[in-house]
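Support case: user asked for a sample of complex input and structure output to validate their parser. Sending the pair below.
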Amino acid sequence: MQTQTLERLESNVRTYSRSFPVVFTKARNARLTDENGREYIDFLAGAGTLNYGHNNPHLKQALLDYLDSDGIVHGLDFWTAAKRDYLETLEEVILKPRGLEYKVHLPGPTGTNAVEAAIRLARVAQGRHNIVTFTNGFHGVTMGALATTGNRKFREATGGIPLQGSAFMPYDGYMGEHADSLDYFEKLLGDNSSGLDLPAAVIVETVQGEGGINVAGLDWLKRLEAICRDNGILLIVDDIQAGCGRTGKFFSFEHAGIKPDIVTNSKSLSGFGLPFAHVLMRPDLDKWKPGQYNGTFRGFNLAFATAAAAMRQYWRDDTFERDVQRKGRVVEDRFQKIAAWISEQGVPASERGRGLMRGIDLGDGDLADKITAKAFEKGLVIETSGQAGEVVKCLCPLTIPDEDLLEGLDILEASVREVMA
Amino acid sequence: MQTQTLERLESNVRTYSRSFPVVFTKARNARLTDENGREYIDFLAGAGTLNYGHNNPHLKQALLDYLDSDGIVHGLDFWTAAKRDYLETLEEVILKPRGLEYKVHLPGPTGTNAVEAAIRLARVAQGRHNIVTFTNGFHGVTMGALATTGNRKFREATGGIPLQGSAFMPYDGYMGEHADSLDYFEKLLGDNSSGLDLPAAVIVETVQGEGGINVAGLDWLKRLEAICRDNGILLIVDDIQAGCGRTGKFFSFEHAGIKPDIVTNSKSLSGFGLPFAHVLMRPDLDKWKPGQYNGTFRGFNLAFATAAAAMRQYWRDDTFERDVQRKGRVVEDRFQKIAAWISEQGVPASERGRGLMRGIDLGDGDLADKITAKAFEKGLVIETSGQAGEVVKCLCPLTIPDEDLLEGLDILEASVREVMA
Amino acid sequence: MQTQTLERLESNVRTYSRSFPVVFTKARNARLTDENGREYIDFLAGAGTLNYGHNNPHLKQALLDYLDSDGIVHGLDFWTAAKRDYLETLEEVILKPRGLEYKVHLPGPTGTNAVEAAIRLARVAQGRHNIVTFTNGFHGVTMGALATTGNRKFREATGGIPLQGSAFMPYDGYMGEHADSLDYFEKLLGDNSSGLDLPAAVIVETVQGEGGINVAGLDWLKRLEAICRDNGILLIVDDIQAGCGRTGKFFSFEHAGIKPDIVTNSKSLSGFGLPFAHVLMRPDLDKWKPGQYNGTFRGFNLAFATAAAAMRQYWRDDTFERDVQRKGRVVEDRFQKIAAWISEQGVPASERGRGLMRGIDLGDGDLADKITAKAFEKGLVIETSGQAGEVVKCLCPLTIPDEDLLEGLDILEASVREVMA
Amino acid sequence: MQTQTLERLESNVRTYSRSFPVVFTKARNARLTDENGREYIDFLAGAGTLNYGHNNPHLKQALLDYLDSDGIVHGLDFWTAAKRDYLETLEEVILKPRGLEYKVHLPGPTGTNAVEAAIRLARVAQGRHNIVTFTNGFHGVTMGALATTGNRKFREATGGIPLQGSAFMPYDGYMGEHADSLDYFEKLLGDNSSGLDLPAAVIVETVQGEGGINVAGLDWLKRLEAICRDNGILLIVDDIQAGCGRTGKFFSFEHAGIKPDIVTNSKSLSGFGLPFAHVLMRPDLDKWKPGQYNGTFRGFNLAFATAAAAMRQYWRDDTFERDVQRKGRVVEDRFQKIAAWISEQGVPASERGRGLMRGIDLGDGDLADKITAKAFEKGLVIETSGQAGEVVKCLCPLTIPDEDLLEGLDILEASVREVMA
């Protein structure tokens, strides 16, 4: 594989090609192929972007049909038949059956853009600036979104500009067993000199992906919603990584039975890996004036086509979500066993997650790196997450065949055993 | 055409569907078709995103071939064969022949993301925060980029947060005939109590698209580069709208013979309307640490395929750019005639632009709106720009057939005459 | 008393004249006299500015002597004999005996100015911006200082500008019995994605005056110092209200045996109620360049004269501080009895404080207001503090005669009994 | 003179003691005396703080009387007889005769505090944040005020935090003869994409003291007021240095016949060099809620006493202001002659100023430094101002005896001739 020009021409900022230093050429569902023809099982899946697998044939067909018809590919925010179909399908297949009523904002086609639009809308609608976000939260790296992202690596790369307009609260479980993080949040809210400016909104992931597969309890989420309602604070669920079925429901917040005021989706929203994002908002919150938020690629028509196809293919009934839950339990069981074995070796480890968003916390980033490196040698693409990279994370395609899933889990287990031998 | 669900479900923020309230279904080169089968000539072209026309067959073929091979669609910033081909083609076809040496950062696939990455790199590399930008400049709406964008409409929709880290200077010609805007900039730079913090970088469009087709003189650009060099300031050319051939050269700054330290491209970079952007930087400025700037859709492989195809198809020799320049003169001549006629009616009007980025300044946004509305009635999609929407702007595909170009111009001229009759 | 012109001409911002709506004319030690000749015992003492009482005769004599000699009153930051005497006395009487070595910055003559200078120095010396401050902390209201002040009342009066450059941590005891606020701070510091930017400094009051006489434990303060040292964070003690003997030691941090990197003093520093402030800094932290922080009234010579006199009069041995501690115990005992009686009436109340900085927490701002209003009727000037004004606060002059102290306590107790009868 | 302890204990930030490295002990009107008994004529006068001279006997008497009566020295913002007298005298002697109606805010006793309060009030009253300020403007160094101050020296000492909430416009004459700075301001205001956020207020000095004795034309000021009125922008005149008679009128803006919405005074307001400041505001702008802006030393009673005495002594009729104007012409004539002589030596120099606020612009900071150093040798205390210290500035007491004024001018002229010989 020829990589010199890649190394010479691409910025130092490149990251995944350091862990997986091969040139990929093809991919199908849960399998990647490199230039030498070697195959890898993919437990990374675009960090949650390929819930329906690489080159999903149903979605590819929708894309090819659209291209074949000379459908509009790019039209700013023109009305197109593809957009209409997307919106109607979203309403009929996703929103109505879940008792949700939202209007749709189509900002730029990335998660960070959706977050920027969501928090700006919250500020405009509320007339105040503060956005409460949580420890280990990740919501993107453009300057507005970055203020709500916890990672020092990104925060320190602003060239010295302090990030403004947000305040961090401890996530569920962050303060240990004896203290409740929402007790603390409520105390600050009710204290006139706590230093916490009354928030316009709270932004939260129900399961923190980049933060290390931290799972908010369903009661914690319900209480968070109640605190927001009681204090006139909007609740934004950032469902960019955990949404689109990853946790076993289309929206990750369905498990808790809450109804956020604003929702962001991206990553697997197009279903085919195409850049795409939307913001869902309670209709009465739609305080935007025409054109007050724009962007060249707002409303990407190829993504409308594949996203509508994905909703129709997978979400008309509960077959798919039950299958995801089933596979989630498979991963859960195996991860628990692996974690138990690791703990027996003297490294306290634990499993956690929801649906097919799962991790093993090793409490040690170096060890986790060795395990994922070993797994790559053996043909499994898997990454770590968490503040120190201490959590081995499984985000395999939801459509992964059982045999690939099991093979991937076998590779991971073997890698753990080899590294810790 | 059924538009009720669109009106009901899409946020009030929608804008183009207010000027062009039809549902588009198909498009080919410079022609759009609505759901009723009516055709429109497209002088908007995705606000400069479709320089090679809608559904360009060469680029579509590259896209279909890639899809047919099950090439990687989404792989975060994995090395792929498509990425390598893109980088090598960029170097060979574009950079080397122009004597340019840059490294490439692939941030999120939108212009605003490229600007965020560019100005953040400048701050990190320089260790100071101030970015000088220009009156009527437009560089995107995420919070970092928005600080460099002049439009009050966007700036006032931050929910009250002051935008920070930038300072506005008057663009070429902004101060009228008797004062030179760069004299003013130089005076501020040399004055220890001017209030201008020593800039990390200047960001400039050589022709301001959203700002009203304001054209920076070539001497002005050269002097701006010299001032930057003399003061240790980086020069960023935002070539998102003016680049990719729009002005008759691949990079709009080639006309001036300058070499920016950092360049941003997006819009027509993929050639096919796919979300895509890159930042080019002088190799020694690549101060990024691995992973310090990320994003799910950094490096969109379908766009690599079409972008490489576009470079090979149009930029291997000067045939295409000479054709663009020829068409530019056609538009220039007609616009001058139209402006002269308008002036004769008592409304002082003038033509301006470079290459196929051209406008007629009517000094009156209402009149401009009436003209573009009339043109749409007659089958021409064309928009206004400028701080009050006072400039009718032609950004037709560079590949527009002469007959479509002339028909579009005829429609425009007829619309002007009808409205002003 | 004629108050119409005061009401008409003074801004609505006025505050104490609402609680104490009389016109004062004279004052001596712990007694104020209004225009009708009525006397009041003063348990407010300029919110801690008059530790040595009103018109202290020793200090007044120093002032009159200075004026009599035509000494320089105002000289920007000229060297004067008065400044030299102040610095030398500070070193000899205060710093050396306590094993402290500091350089002295004389910024503008107010507490908020000292805080602005202190945190700016910390940022410059450390090359990073974040200042950690605590819930219920009060450090002044100019924009730099305000970012470290918790009160929503002030924070919301910025005209919408988010305050930047600080992060709030829970003060000692804030999280209740089961959670340690420094455990939380340490967890955030050690977590790469906690959202807490590595602080340049921590700013803390050892006893929070405005915040409600919240008392940091001595072990908590020692551990805070240790955390700062371990993480390369500067420790700033804001001793503006708690310093100059208020807690029974010249510096309030002496009780804990810690040595802050930077200390701010103001309020009682001049001893006579004159505007005056200084910043003390570890000599190696003095990274200021000449003239980088200025102000017309930096170094007020009349205050040099009275401050030096105060140090010589009260701090040459431990007589004064032992007397303050003794009176502190008198107030403590009585406050405990009063709090116990209140609790017996069904309103849980408690006493807290250090030295002569003491309060009764009633948990109810309205009740506290009624008590202080009743006390004023009976001839005692006393105010509330705390986030809801729920703490009745005693900050009487340290020089208060025992009979005035006891009379004041009697009035307070009688007021409590009357209000709660 | 013993200066070692001063050098050892005082922060590096000290500045005037570098130019005038002696220890001063006494002062009377326009004469300073050092510890060796040497006398100096004072053309600096506390940078405009001692308009009535050092130890003015009338004001000293008022101060001694107040102290003798055991008047309240410090009482937070209590109503006192001294405050009432101050407010009534201000209204009767100053405001009413000039047709001005203002309410009075007494913030902390420094200029920067008055500016912080003024701009914050403007933001609160207007509901928007932007404050327009001018090149070479100086309005203080606390973070809120600093955003409106042009000096890079201070702006770069924030530890990297960008200053926010302000925009700089060119002051009168800044753009040279051919461009009008208010034309530029108006163009930006009327341009929807100029990057200038609609200002809440403009803050301006009618003569810039620190900025180099730059004098705004009276027509320019009138037009600035008109632009503000037309655009709903508040006009704040910062009269901290130029006010209190310095330009030959009590308020410097009287010359132009304008009525600012908000005025700040400090420096010579107390008349005796005591820290003191107020903000005057149109009564309907008083949007402060009780206690929304506070500070320990708001309302310094000793300053009330001396300030009221100064108003009564000097401003009951126009005798004093005519005398100031007369002396101003004396300085003007001599400065013109000196400037002409310097120009003849090949260094283009010019005189400028208003009243007794005057300077000679040498266009060369090193030369100016040599001249003021030479003058100090000869017994004259005088400083430079301007962005490069290129302007020798005369701010002698307004009460200077003619013989001292002439002697000072003679010394300056001799110094110029010696240095340039």
